[in-house]
# Entry
Amino acid sequence: MKKFFKEFKEFAMRGNVIDMAVGIIIGAAFKSIVDSLIANFIQPLLDAILPKPVDLPEGTWAAGPAIASFIGTIISFIITAFVLFLIIKAMNAAKNIKKKEEKPADPTTKVCPFCQSEIDIKATRCPHCTSELN
# Structure
């Protein structure tokens, strides 16, 4: 049982899992902003554009409000998905910039031109074939 909890702790503390948790929290917060935008600005516009139901008998379904609500939900999804796409694209670009800034390590060995063995970069004579190096 201890091994199980130890493995779970290692899994939960990985950087990717923590990044994912932060992303979910930010996504949920952003979704509430988009929902507010839809409910307060876009939905009233859709209600004004789409035809209003006339006096219908009780129990009859009115398509206008349902269609406006569905269109509002689709717009909310598109806005949320687009902004999250931009955020992820920016994060990936930032990761690539970090990788480009790292300089490769200087070589510590070289190859002897005579015997093709690997030797120290500062060597003036090959320890294998005893040839003098430039």
The mean pLDDT is 77.
